[in-house]
From TrEMBL, chain A:
Entry superkingdom: Bacteria
Similarity comment: Belongs to the binding-protein-dependent transport system permease family. LivHM subfamily.
Membrane topology: Multi-pass membrane protein
Organism: Streptomyces pseudovenezuelae
Protein name: Urea transport system permease protein
From TrEMBL, chain B:
Membrane-spanning segments: 12-30, 36-54, 61-79, 115-137, 144-163, 193-213, 243-260, 266-283, 290-307, 319-343
Subcellular location: Cell membrane
Protein name, entry field: Urea transport system permease protein
Alphabetically ordered keywords of this record: Cell membrane, Membrane, Transmembrane, Transmembrane helix
InterPro entries for this protein: ABC_transp_permease (IPR001851), ABC_transptr_urea_perm_UrtC (IPR017778), LivM-like (IPR043428)
NCBIfam families with a match to the protein in the record: urea_trans_UrtC
Stretches assigned to coiled coil: none
Top-level taxonomic group: Bacteria
TrEMBL record, chain C:
One protein family per Pfam: Peripla_BP_5
PROSITE patterns given in the database record: TAT
Entry-linked InterPro entries: ABC_urea-bd_UrtA, Peripla_BP_I, TAT_signal
Domain of life per record: Bacteria
Record protein name field: Urea transport system substrate-binding protein
Source lineage: Bacteria, Bacillati, Actinomycetota, Actinomycetes, Kitasatosporales
Signal peptide interval: 1-25
NCBIfam families: urea_ABC_UrtA
Gene3D superfamilies: 3.40.50.2300
Keywords associated with the record: Signal
Amino acid sequence: MTVVLNQSFTGISIGAVLLLIALGLTLTFGQMGVINMAHGEFIMAGAYTTYVLQKSISSAGASLLVALPLAFLVAGAMGALLEWLLIRRLYTRPLDTLLVTWGVSLMLQQLARDVFGAPNVQTAAPDLLTGNISAGGVTFANNRLFILGLALLCVLGLTLVLRFTPLGRRIRAVVQNRDLAEVSGIATGQVDRITFFIGSGLAGVAGVALTLVGPIGPTMGTNYIVDAFLVVVVGGIGQLKGAVITAFALGVLQSVLEYSTTVSVAKVGVLVAIVAFLQWRPQGLYTLRTRSLA
Amino acid sequence: MTTTLTRLRVPGAFLLGAVLLLGVAPLALSDFRLSLFAKYLCYAIVAVGVSLAWGRGGLMVLGQGVFFGLGGYAMAMHLKLTDAAATGEKLPDFMQLYGTSDALPWWWEPFANPFFALAMTVLLPMVVAGVLGFFIFRRRVKGAYFAILSQALAAALSIWLIGQQATTGGTNGLTDIQGFFGYSLDDPVNQRMVYFIIAAVLLLLMALARQLFVSRYGELLVAVRDSEERVRFLGYDPANVKLVAYVVAAGMAGLAGALFVPAVGIISPALIGIVPSIGFVIGAAVGGRASLVGAVLGAIAVAWAQSTLSDAFPAAWTYLQGLLFVLAVGFLPGGLASLWFVLRRRRTRPTPVIRTEEPVAVTVGETA
Amino acid sequence: MSGFSISRRGLLAGASAVGASAALSACGAKTGTETSSGAGAKADTSGSTVKVGLLNSLSGTMAISEVTVHNALLLAVKEINAAGGVLGKKLKPISQDGASDWPTFAEKAEALIKDDKVVATFGCWTSASRKAVKPVFERYKSLLFYPVQYEGLEQSPYIFYIGATTNQQIVPALDYLKKQGLTRLYLVGSDYVFPRTANKIIKAYAKAKGMTVVGEDYAPLGSTEFSTITNKVRTAGADAVFNTLNGDSNVAFFKEYKSAGLTAKSLPVLSVSIAEEEVKSIGTQYLEGQLTAWNYYETTPGAANTKFVKAYQAAYGKDKPTSDPMEAAYISLYLWKEMVEKAGSFDVAKVKAASDGILLDAPEGKVTVDGATQHVYKTARIGKVGSDGLIEEVWNSGKPIKPDPYLKGYSWAASLS
């Protein structure tokens, strides 16, 4: 029984990581249709922000707290710049954005290598986040709880922004019908940029959280990018709740398969399950109903 | 006169290519450079298929590594088995080291037959592509979904191969291939023979692709790319049209993988995953996806630059590579091939033309 | 106009003639027959300098580790040149980037041998890259010096293995664990050749010597998700974890390990791929007190090591650690120099013949080349990660261990090869 509970928590914590890395993509890919392969490098930017901050703020806890908003701004600014420089020219060719941003991601990785060196760097985690809470034989790792909380907080924040703010209304309007939004007086170009800013910023926040569980290096983004896209694709384009459900479902599936087989088999199993699922529901769990034929 | 010229342009260019590949290159290049060139030509063969499926059909085939790998492994398995048989061993060398059993796995056995193995290098990728494509296109999975799905498959296959070390060689892949249907690959003369086979296959496939491009089917394919709905309304089934392009491209990638094995002497999961799969389309994108010659030259040029420039300037090359993708794909969607058309138009017409002549895969509204 | 088309036809005829004749002439040697033409790549020793090839990943995922090896190789070249070179000739290092991609390694090896005509090549890290270049060095009868500990079961006539083989690292590590009374092991490794082979050896050892393997798990290379594996480790009732993870995975594994409440005291981890450089990137917070098995540490005593560490840090920065593979790479050049000077020639056959018994006072202690296996006698050392990020030796084998890549001298290993 404790095994089941422990593995459930493991599944949820894997899901929380997936959710956090995919959240920004639900905006940039889900809402705007941009396949941004440099999303992983925005995660990396967030992680390096934490690293740089720790050099000036020695307290691990304080630097982590400062890093969260700062990484959001740094990665967000990078995203907005990318949108302005390149992506806005490619909205009619969504698949080409994939290759273009792949090129950008190569350059950003090399930039990180030149600035911070090829080897991984380390950040210290605050003591509070390296321990765990034990309850009834189940061990809850504090860093995992932190990531879970952070992911849920980000989902909540994003939902509130999209639902209840004028900005959110504009974003939704542009997603549902760009032309109509434009003739209604919405500056769609500006909305795109802000959407991209938020989406990329969330990648930065994910990067900060990932310093608690994974390596920090120039190629760290490539570890997460495909998983992140799969979450959004399975969840359904433009649907936050789809991404949330998918992230946790994939997390639990992964942990169950890992426990009963091997990590490699689990990884292959999850990928094959996703491919099969998309045969059944090619538009993902939830779809935004539009009148478009496609 | 102009009609004769136009009529001769394509065969003429083909001939020129044949002379360069079969005549000039073997004379001008050293053994080592020629074997490198053979490797680039394998990538070019993949690019022919990419040009068909992506350039003409609008299918972003981001999983060509899967088919390249299937073809490569089919060939390498046969060659490993004949190598083992030549030294009187029952099992290939890596199985003796890492294997768990003294018997050859059942799915290796048929590959001892050269005809079966050769057929499999093309058929296996085509069957896999056919089954996948049948479901994918029928369910109208397309655009970004198709691209990401392809990536997921490439990742899955490479992880699976790595995990099965005892029967697939794991990360190492299948290495140390000594002979090619009885001919020792140690001998430079035989290496040349392999080069000629690869060059001939490339020319043949280019001719085949060209025929497909100008055929009725080719026009239908472009129509599906540009407006799938209209084709459907006209009574055609776009799923079948796309399926054919996808399967043919997969077969070409498989053949390229099979030829890669004797040319380079290795096939490994590192050639299958996400990054190499993107690499396979990048060359075509840079050269010009919709133009057969552009895609082929692009693939060769990118591969050449990769191996030449990365030694001298590893860091600068990465920046240059990234920049090349951004500029070529972002600002010159027809690839470098379209540059030629743009320039020619400028020369012949007084007013600059903004529109590129080569059609470009435009996939408006596919993400909804 | 018709003349135009005829000239094109002429081209066609010409092309097909060239093609056909080339194809016809292409009936080379059959398999099994010895060809001399393959060995056509002669090293160039005519000038006042000779070229040595350095083959490392300068880009890609393996660059993290291999760049440090490359640096150590360059340092050795510089020192040897400053001392007058080899046989009076200065060394010119030619660097090729393997780019963490195995087929690229094979291609670059060929470029070094055929284009640059190097007298010897130094480098490679992963087993996969070594397996990829092995046929190239054998085909052209050129020498490779391989500086990293590896899984054994290999003995190419054209490779010198300067890193430890299994009986100089894994077997002594098991002896150590057994002596400490840690007999129930959990095996965690990356999914590739070295960990799988190492674990096969560990299981054979355990079976013969009354130890128990309570679990075995592999993660795909580069995997950064270890919560399930850690859960399994925690509940398996092991005394120690034998860790053969590689690269990035170690960072994720040790972060997970600590947050699961496991420590070096409660359940020690013995790692065979974590050297000083890796300690730096994982963080002492997560590693303090954990064990490693190598043949060299930055803290290894001796004048040779003091000199090496000083020279390396002077060249590459005060905060740069030195590690076992770097040291092996560094001495591989010196060992080759000794062999060449003993042979009095750069000729590969003569160098190989001269290799047996070459002795060097290396930073890791005395090393001797075993000509029969083309491996090196090395002292095994177990170390413990200290709070300062350095590794302190807690045990060593006392004397250099004779290399035994096929474990022929160990009765329990009879079933392995």
